[in-house]
Automatic annotation (TrEMBL), chain A:
Organism: Acanthochromis polyacanthus (spiny chromis)
GO biological process: cell-cell adhesion; convergent extension involved in axis elongation; establishment or maintenance of epithelial cell apical/basal polarity; neurotransmitter receptor transport postsynaptic membrane to endosome; neurotransmitter receptor transport, endosome to postsynaptic membrane; receptor clustering; regulation of signal transduction; Wnt signaling pathway
Membrane topology summary: Peripheral membrane protein
Name this polypeptide is given: Tax1-binding protein 3
UniProt domain PDZ: residue ranges: 15-112
Location relative to the cell: Cell membrane; Cytoplasm; Nucleus
Gene3D superfamilies: 2.30.42.10
Keywords per UniProt: Acetylation, Cell membrane, Cytoplasm, Membrane, Nucleus, Phosphoprotein, Wnt signaling pathway
Gene Ontology terms, MF aspect: protein kinase binding
Annotated PROSITE patterns: PDZ (PS50106)
InterPro entries for this protein: PDZ, PDZ_sf, Synaptic_Scaffolding_LAP-MAGUK
UniProtKB/TrEMBL annotation, chain B:
Protein family membership: Belongs to the Vang family.
The organism of origin for this protein: Acanthochromis polyacanthus
UniProt biased composition (Basic and acidic residues): 45-54
UniProt topology in membrane: Multi-pass membrane protein
A cellular component annotation (GO) from this entry: plasma membrane
Subcellular location: Cell membrane
Listed name of the protein: Vang-like protein
Region of interest called Disordered, as start-end residue ranges on this chain: 45-84
PANTHER family: VANG-LIKE PROTEIN
Superkingdom of this protein's organism: Eukaryota
Chief place of localization: membrane
Keywords on record: Cell membrane, Membrane, Transmembrane, Transmembrane helix
One Pfam family, short name: Strabismus
Length: 128, 537
């Protein structure tokens, strides 16, 4: 999932809609994120390309809203409610996900298995 | 001449008659009763009061002034006597002298048994050591003369024995004369600097390296003489330049032997190799020193010199005080079996540790109280005098005092507090009245504050600080299982014994250190951010 600077990024994504769960005063989603343009990409265990500074899902609380919605550990989040997540700082990503006035977040996530499934089904290179 | 003093009051005229009959020569009251307490002195003085000779009056008035404020037990400047007096009286009891009789010695030189033993030991040892010291000195001087006169003899003998045959000395040869002269001068100075120093100590065995060097020098000179005798004297060699060069080579070789002497005697032990731990056997004071490769006797000498400078002075009164305190406790708790058998051993585990700590706390409190009073008294005493300025000198010449008189003037006001403090901390035998007044005069002369004056009495200083009489340790014996000329070893132990205590010395070798190297390129110091946050949402 490396990108060439100046070229649009293409990826096979899955749309996941998560309903936030109210716990006391907070709305939680039930997963943890890591990564960001201000973080060290080499430490990311889930990325294939170790220069990828995108936001990745690092942990999922089992039984939580994200688990129910089908989010998996290691997914790279491309969009949150229409907002791009491939070039954001870690804190910005957190803020986008935890807006208090939103009850639901619609994520576009990508993972390796998606690419392979498409390749397998289409028999080759996904046409842009 | 033995004098008897009767305690109970006796009819004065009778006593006087007795006294004047038996004491034909003038026995001043100061001679009498030196090894007894001050109270005896007072009694004798009162009875002597009828005889008013001039010196007796002076001494009596001095003592009567001392009756009021100063009752420091040790009389001035009589070391042996002072020690024996203190050892006899462990517990200060003012009623001690009431009903006893005392036999005083002949004059102010009465001695106790222990001091006699000590003196004879000192005498016989010093005689033996002196003999040996003179013997080695004379040997060294003879060897030195031999060494210095040999090159000169080498140069002079051909001129005396076969002057006609001898070739005349050319320029190069005369140049060699100058070099011989200066090298001999340098050798003389170097030998004087290294060997002719005042001896620090008398060691039990011969100093091995020095003996070896002396033997080496002797062999060397003898071999040169042999060669000279056989090849030059017998054959009457005419080549004078060769002879002069031979003499120059001798002096050069002697200088090299002197270099060897410096390395063996001085340089070898500079690098620390051993760490020795010195413990005093009576109170456990411990110090650690670093020594180089030395023989045991030289190491012992170095340790004793450090002892005099570092260890606080040995105070036997402190040990007996703590022992008597402990004994008092145990004594108070004896358990007896009333059925008529032997008394059971005192129950050791049943003493009251709380009581002992209580008593120690009380002792501490007493010491602090006395110290506070002492500080106040001394500060007040110091305000009584001030240094006189130049302008005032003309105004009042009568009241001017030199430091000694000033010290004597202010001493009585602080004497009582000082004496009480010294007695509480069991230091009273270390300081005589004379030494205290001397110290006070010294402090006044050098503009020291009361605190500076008191410093030497508040803490026990190193042994050197006190006068020689109170050192209590002058003759040392080295006790060692290994030979004293062998070197220090790892784990070696030896003892340095003196009359009252001993120093236990253990030596440990400083380990061999294996060091390796790691090179760091200065450009390799680079840093990156390692932020790795994981936020749960």
């Amino acid at each position: 999932m490396s990108f060439v600077p100046g070229q649009p990024v293409t990826a096979v994504v899955q749309r996941i809609e998560i309903q936030k769960l109210r716990q006391g005063n907070n709305l939680i989603l039930g997963f943890s994120i890591g990564g960001g343009i201000d973080q060290d990409p080499g430490q990311n265990p889930f990325s294939e390309d170790k220069t990828d500074k995108g936001i990745y899902v690092t942990r999922i609380t089992s039984g939580g809203p994200a688990d129910v919605a089908g989010l998996m550990m290691g997914d790279k989040i491309m969009q949150v409610n229409g907002w791009d997540m491939t070039m954001v700082t870690h804190d910005k990503a957190r803020k986008r996900l935890t807006k208090k006035n939103e009850d639901v977040v619609r994520l576009l996530v990508t993972r390796k298995s998606l690419e392979e499934a498409v390749k397998h089904s289409m028999g080759g290179y996904p046409r842009p | 001449m033995t004098l008897l003093i009767w305690r109970r009051p006796i009819h004065p005229p009778l006593l006087l008659a007795q006294w004047s009959a038996s004491t034909g020569s003038c026995v001043s009251p100061r001679c009498v009763g030196y090894s007894a307490s001050q109270r005896e002195n007072k009694l004798v003085h009162r009875q002597f009061g009828l005889e008013r000779s001039r010196d007796r009056h002076k001494s009596r008035s001095k003592d009567s002034r001392s009756e009021k404020s100063v009752t420091i037990n040790t009389p001035p400047a009589e070391p042996l006597l002072g020690d024996s007096a203190v050892r006899g009286e462990q517990v200060q009891d003012d009623n001690w002298g009431e009903t006893t009789t005392a036999v005083t010695g002949t004059s102010e030189h009465s001695l106790s048994q222990e001091d006699i033993v000590r003196i004879t030991k000192d005498l016989e040892d010093s005689v033996g050591l002196d003999c040996r010291r003179y013997f080695t000195r004379t040997l060294a001087v003879i060897l030195g003369l031999l060494v210095f006169l040999t090159p000169l003899a080498f140069l002079v003998l051909p001129h005396l024995l076969w002057p006609e045959k001898l070739q005349s000395c050319g320029t190069a040869c005369e140049g060699l004369f100058i070099s011989v002269a200066f090298k001999l001068l340098i050798l003389l100075l170097a030998v004087w600097a290294l060997f002719f120093r005042p001896a620090r100590a008398g060691l039990p065995r011969v100093f091995v390296f020095r003996a070896l060097l002396a033997v080496l020098v002797l062999l060397f000179v003898v071999s040169y003489w042999l060669f000279y005798g056989v090849r030059i004297l017998d054959s009457q060699d005419e080549n004078y330049q060769g002879i002069v060069q031979y003499a120059v080579s001798l002096v050069d070789a002697l200088l090299f032997i002197h270099y060897l002497a410096i390395v063996l005697l001085e340089l070898r032990q500079l690098q620390p190799c051993f760490s020795v731990c010195v413990t005093r056997s009576t109170d456990g004071e411990t110090r650690h020193y670093n020594l180089g490769q030395l023989s045991i006797q030289r190491a012992a000498l170095a340790i004793i010199e450090h002892y005099y400078c570092d260890f606080p002075v040995h105070n036997p009164a402190l040990l007996s005080a703590s022992k008597s305190r402990a004994a008092k406790h145990l004594a108070g708790l004896k358990v007896y079996n009333v059925d008529g058998e032997f008394p059971a051993a005192p129950a050791e585990g049943e003493w009251d540790p709380a009581a002992e700590t209580r008593e120690e706390a009380e002792h501490e409190r007493r010491v602090r109280k006395r110290k506070a009073r002492l500080v106040v008294a001394v500060e007040e005493a110091f305000t009584h005098i001030k240094r006189m300025q130049e302008e005032e000198q003309k105004k009042a010449p009568g009241d001017v005092m030199d430091p000694r008189e000033a010290a004597q003037a202010i001493f009585p006001s602080m004497a009582r507090a000082l004496q009480k403090y010294l007695r509480t901390t069991k230091q009273q035998h270390c300081h005589s009245m004379e030494s205290i007044q001397q110290h006070l005069a010294f402090c006044i002369t050098n503009n020291m504050t009361p605190k500076a004056f008191l410093e030497s009495y508040l803490t026990p200083g190193p042994t050197l600080q006190y006068s020689r009489d109170h050192w209590l340790a002058r003759q040392w014996t080295l006790i060692s299982e290994a030979s004293v000329t062998s070197g220090l070893k790892d784990g070696g132990v030896f003892l340095l014994k003196c009359v009252d205590f001993s120093l236990v010395v253990t030596s440990k070798k400083i380990p061999y250190i294996q060091m390796s190297e790691e090179y760091i390129d200065p450009k390799s110091h680079k840093f990156v951010l390692r932020l790795q946050s994981e936020t749960s949402v």
